[in-house]
């Protein structure tokens, strides 16, 4: 990570949010802001319900984990054929998703076994 991050404990506000709870006040949440060194103000914000004693590094790691999940899902759909199933049965869909998941696990383990600066195998 090349950005700076700041985390504050805040209490969200809003009429719509208050209607969803019986408590007089909403519980405190983490407000995490990403502030790249090249920018004059923060560029991204997240609200989190993680416990109050959470270290900043853990908050950032868990927040940025979403990117990894989206990347893996895109890889499974485009490169491994997750979206190619056109069958009509639960069993067929289950087998298809299981094989795509196994292929993704294999690719991930191969990628992790390489040194970070190695070129991709052809």
How does this structure look, described?
- Strands 1-2-3 form a 3-stranded antiparallel β-sheet, with helices on one face.
- The chain has 3 helices and 3 strands.
- The protein starts with a strand and ends in a 9-residue tail after the last helix.
- The radius of gyration is 21 Å and the shape is flat.
- Strand 2 (29-36) and strand 3 (44-48) form a beta hairpin.
- It is an alpha+beta fold.
Helix-strand layout with pairing:
Blueprint: E1 3-10, H1 15-18, E2 29-36, E3 44-48, H2 56-78, H3 90-113
Antiparallel strand pairs: 1-2, 2-3
Strand numbers in spatial order across the main sheet = 1-2-3
Biggest sheet character: 3 strands, antiparallel
Stretches where pLDDT falls below 50 for ≥5 residues?
none
Quick one: how many beta strands? 3
Task: Report the portion of residues in β strands.
Answer: 15-25%
Distance between the termini: 29 Å
Compute the CA-based radius of gyration. Answer: 21 Å
Structural class: alpha+beta
Q: Percent helix among the residues?
A: 40-55%
- Return the average pLDDT rounded to an integer: 85
Q: How many helices?
A: 3
User: H/E series, N to C?
Assistant: EHEEHH
Shape: flat
């Amino acid at each position: 990570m090349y950005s700076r991050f700041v985390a504050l404990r805040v209490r969200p506000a809003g009429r719509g949010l208050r209607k969803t709870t019986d408590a007089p006040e909403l519980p405190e949440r983490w407000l995490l802001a990403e502030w790249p060194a090249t920018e004059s103000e923060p560029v991204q914000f997240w609200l989190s319900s993680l416990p109050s004693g959470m270290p900043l590094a853990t908050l950032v790691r868990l927040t940025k984990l979403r990117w990894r999940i989206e990347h893996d899902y895109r890889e499974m759909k485009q490169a491994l054929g997750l979206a190619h199933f056109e069958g009509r049965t639960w069993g067929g869909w289950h087998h298809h998703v299981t094989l795509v998941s196994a292929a993704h696990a294999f690719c991930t383990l191969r990628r992790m076994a390489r040194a970070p600066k190695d070129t991709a195998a052809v």
